[in-house]
Design a protein that fits this description.
The protein has 400 residues and is mainly beta. It contains 2 helices and 27 strands. The protein has helices at 7-15, 18-25, and strands at 37-41, 49-60, 64-70, 78-87, 92-99, 106-111, 117-126, 131-138, 143-153, 161-166, 169-177, 189-196, 204-205, 211-212, 222-229, 240-256, 264-268, 282-283, 289-290, 299-302, 308-311, 318-321, 327-330, 338-341, 347-350, 357-360, 366-369.
Amino acid sequence: MGPRPSLGLRLAARLSRPWRAARLADPSRGYRHRTARAFLPIAGAAGPALVQDVVVRQHTASTSISIAVAVTATGAGNCLVLIVTIAAGAAVTADSVTDTAGNAWTRLGYDTTVNPSLAVYIAPNAASITSVTWAATYTSTGINIECEFLEVSGVVAATPSYGLTYNPQTAKVTSESTASLTPTAVNDFVIAYGVFGGAAQAITTTGTGWTALTGETANGPITAGGYRIAADTTTALSDSWSVATAEYANALIVALKAAASTTPEAVTGAPIGVGVDTGAPILGESGTAVGVGEVTSPSEGIGDTGTAVAVGEATSPDVGAGAAGAPIGVGEVAGTPTVAVGAMGQVTGVGEVGAASEGIGDTGAPTGVGVDTGTPTVGGGGSVPAAGPFGGPGMVLMST
């Protein structure tokens, strides 16, 4: 027997067969081309959300006021916002915000251009609280205060706000609107808030696309507000309100930056299983995990029948898919025959160790080629020439 062909030559010969080339070129003949589907984290997929909204109103005849807002225990790490409306004919000399957890509150703005005044405070990445207190001192008595508390989840921990703008009206009006704010990132949380002085009256929101906040209309000053999640970074956002009786008014708009989200989202067309170094599974066509290129286990693929086949395993022969979708051995370890599929769909042994190599004759029956004791010759009609004592059609002639 001659030397056994190398694995590379055997693979090249198999791939060069016409039926295999046709299958590789035509997906309808057994080789399915799949679009990869993987779950990858997409930043900003979830976005901020309003957790709670609480309003407290109070009147005092003193030059100082302290108003406590009891709230449901807030979530650790959430952003806390306090909007304060002050109807007073005097200037403020001091103001502060404290809570039950000792969080650090920052005053973003306090506009006193008109009466009522409008202030907003923030405590980002706050520890959980059950109450927040606003306190201030004025130069005269007779102060009406409204505090609206907001808890917002999904906001960045540091420097979360931007774009704060006021729009005070120095003449009495029946309509008020915020300035425009264009979000800098999708999913940012935008707050709009308006206030009219004077006595109680109905207030109508005329802006669109906003989710209403609680507000206060039972007593003056009256307030209304809204929030929305930014859908893009090109649309300038603004909210507006109207009343029947003209009053001095003010409004603010401000945005809170959304924290990056790690919520998985399905992506079509993403690469799967390329150089995975942790052995983590990838989702296959049926939604089950298949290992591709894993470091700690054999690489797996999908055969024609949709089942997993092992390709390039470290401790066993390489296995591929045959014409019928069944696995065949390619490049097996020494001493084991390589198995192929013959013309009749039968398994034939090629290059076996210690046994005769088999092929397929013209009649479809196996013929012995390279038998240990000699090499037979086959005639053109599928038979052996009539020579020697074993001559006759289709019979083996043993050479000595």
